[in-house]
Amino acid sequence: MTTKVGGLGLLGLTLFIAISFIVQLNSAPPRMLSARLDPFGDVNVHLQTQPDPPKTGGIPLILHITDASGQAVAVDQVKYEYWKEERAPLTLTGESSDGSTFQAIAELDSVGDWQVRVTLFKGSQQTQMTFTLRVMPNI
Fold this sequence. Notes:
The chain is of the alpha+beta class. The protein has one helix and nine strands.
């Protein structure tokens, strides 16, 4: 009898964790935003993290920049600003691998919602967009 009760408890816990994970993923803020950047017109910027969802610690923030048809768009520079709640923003410069993909390591030291503002530069033109990252515990 104890084995059945323990097995049911374990099954219930497993279902709770699975459902919580699915709800968390479905409620995550968007990771693809669009903005106008001349001479390209509208560009799409996808923010990727490793791991996804991000956990506390040093997390790569990877940007993929494309046009409306999905073709890579090369920009000159990317700057990141990130902050949480009432803290002062921290600034990073992205390192490019091919002109359309940039990466920087952000030190996300606490759980919760972090704001990440990215600024794209092409010649004298620039555009900004702000993402929200929901950071999970590093367990």
